[in-house]
Amino acid sequence: MLIAWTTVSRRAEAETIAQTAVAQGRASCVQIDGPIASVYCWEGHVESVEEYRLTFKLLPEQAESLEQLVHKLHPYETPEWIVVPASHVSEKYLSWARATPNSSPL
């Protein structure tokens, strides 16, 4: 299983991306946290903004399709997109993810 993250500036944007990703079988689950505080450098200036973080749980075969969807729907010019392998996933949760009807990309 993989875990992926991105952030957006509005809750509605986060919900649209999350709902679409799950409905289209590109992620098994998406959690939305926020607002969170993000501090970063953009075009030579330090920015401090509130954002909503999306945490995606996905199977490796969903990764490419999910990344394409997130970049298509994302409002930012350069969206955060980080994907890491989960070092341990309980067998029950992994079995659920594999059995989800939409667990493979459309």
| Count of beta strands | 4
Q: How is the biggest beta sheet arranged?
A: 4 strands, antiparallel
Q: Which percent band covers the strand fraction?
A: 35-45%
| Radius of gyration over C-alpha positions, nearest whole angstrom | 14 Å
CATH topology: Alpha-Beta Plaits
SS-based class: alpha+beta
User: What's the overall average pLDDT, rounded?
Assistant: 93
Strand order of the largest sheet: 2-3-1-4
Q: What is the share of helical residues?
A: 25-40%
What is the helix/strand order?
EHEEHEH
Compute the separation of the termini in Å.
Answer: 19 Å
User: Any idea how many domains?
Assistant: 1
Architecture, CATH level 2?
2-Layer Sandwich
How many DSSP H or I helices? 3
Question: What is the CATH domain class?
Answer: Alpha Beta
Shape: elongated
Uncertain stretches of 5 or more adjacent residues: none
What keywords describe this structure?
106 residues; alpha+beta; Alpha-Beta Plaits; 4-stranded antiparallel sheet; 31% helix; 37% strand
Explain the overall architecture:
The chain is α+β, with helices and mostly antiparallel strands and 106 residues long. It has a single domain, classed as Alpha-Beta Plaits (2-Layer Sandwich), CATH 3.30.70. The chain is 31% helix and 37% strand. The protein has 3 helices and 4 strands. It has helices at 11-23, 63-73, 91-99, and strands at residues 2-8, 29-42, 45-58, 82-85. The chain has a 4-stranded antiparallel sheet with strand order 2-3-1-4, with helices on one face. A hairpin with a 2-residue loop joins strand 2 and strand 3 (45-58). Helix 1 runs antiparallel to helix 2. The chain is elongated, with a radius of gyration of 14 Å. The model has no long low-confidence stretch (mean pLDDT 93).
